[in-house]
């Protein structure tokens, strides 16, 4: 495959867009549907990244390439899902403020463990040696292929989120999120519903973390900063927390704007890309969250349109 | 339970509840369900709604026990049962305050009430239509009965939300139904429909307990009335006797009401 026309940094920018889109979709299921305000997205994503990296690098697997990746990615998904289950249980009786602080605390614990457990994680120095589960010869081809694979994974996440609205499971999540006491009175276990949702979404966040590890081919403590959570939340809040397409639209207007359009197509002074732009990006994302919450809390796409969906699903009623 | 009262019962024993030192419920013994429809009557603050919430275990008891007794089945201690398990046991309560699920349509609400837990798992392959197919007749019956013209819309008015709450309760096919002011804010026509639905349900074996400030509903519907004041059960008798009781007239009904 001749990819000379394609800038390697553009591949990485597109990867970031796809990755944050996936995280935004998962946050949509948590916050938009079930009203679980997860401010520790980077924690679940980071657990997946580090579980994958440690399993990949520290275990002498009797097989390589594809199988090694699949097994380690499965481990990352399971560990992140287990973390989602535990954190979900711990925050199950907390209000929104408590949930925010609790999930943020979890993310902090993950960063501290990744930093201090040097024997396993490499600590602040990190660990190299992760690799793509295939060998086509050229790095750019590897990265482009990985971008396509990650896009397929995020497309599956989108399909899952899209389908959830059309199932009894989605209805239960909306009910639990909007009126927990009433849902309980109908015999619904709100706690079980939330825990299952946290397990599924956290596991998928962990899988995206593992896929990130392959793309960057190393474990770096700097990757576990709040910018991951901020990007996913800013995109979702901008697009609309209660709409599946909210994360998609929001990511295109935030991450894609900064990491692709401005970086590659807007003439900016040398050096800004590495210094001023990342800082400006965080500031703009933060400001976008504040402004949207003040002036249009439902996001650009607006409220959930349940009656319209129900008419499509049950128009013959 | 004797052979002649083969109907689900709630047994309330030595139940107490205080808020900030004030006793709001203090009942030595009370059996609910020994007749088809019972009314709970009393002035504001008598403890009627609190008693219902204690039965549902949506607030914890300070002391005592609440037991569900069903013909041919083992007794269940409701006072140590989680709220979300009550509906599965057949104990269902309507809400006093008008409430609904934000965003969900009327049909959503009805489907939610009837959907079995196995269809609500994250990777359940069941589509919405599967659940609809299983329960369409009963949902259509109750929505049509109460005159919901557009079940695919969100309930907007207080009256629609109140009726939808009752529909959800009816769809759960309760063994014991606790109705807390079910006709408050409803039109006369809808009130009559609620009363007819309660009668039909009771005739099929459901034990119904009603708290209602519309006394005509109580007198028309109830086979027995329990009068409460200051957290205690003062009287339990047929509606005519309660209505003529001097204590009830003096403290609740007012002179000239009989």
Task: Explain how this protein is built.
The complex is a heterodimer of chains A (317) and B (258). With 317 residues, chain A is mainly alpha-helical. Chain A has a domain at 8-225. In chain A, 72% of the residues lie in helices and 1% in strands. Chain A has a two-stranded antiparallel sheet with strand order 1-2. Chain B has 258 residues and is an alpha/beta fold. Chain B contains 9 helices and 10 strands. A 6-stranded mixed β-sheet of chain B has the order 6-7-8-3-9-10, sandwiched between helices. In chain B, strands 2-1-4-5 form a 4-stranded antiparallel β-sheet. In chain B, α6 links the parallel β7 and β8. At the A-B interface, α7, α8, α9 and α14 of A face α2, α3 and α4 of B.
> How confident is the prediction overall: mean pLDDT of chain A?
93
Lateral arrangement of strands in the main beta sheet of chain A: 1-2
Measured as a percent range, the helix fraction of chain A is: over 70%
User: Based on helices, strands and strand pairing, what is the structural class of chain A?
Assistant: mainly alpha
* Assembly annotation: heterodimer
CA-based shape of chain B: globular
**Number of helical runs of chain B?**
9
Chain pair forming the biggest interface: A-B, 36 and 44 residues
Radius of gyration of chain B in whole Å, from Cα? 19 Å
Order of helices and strands of chain B: EEEHEEHEHHHEHEHEEHH
Name the structural class of chain B: alpha/beta
Overall geometry of chain A = globular
Order of helices and strands of chain A: HHHHHEHHHHEHHHHH
Number of strands of chain A: 2
Helix content of chain B: 25-40%
Percentage beta strand of chain A: under 5%
The number of helical elements of chain A comes to 14
Major sheet description of chain B: 6 strands, mixed
Q: Give the terminus-to-terminus CA distance of chain A.
A: 52 Å
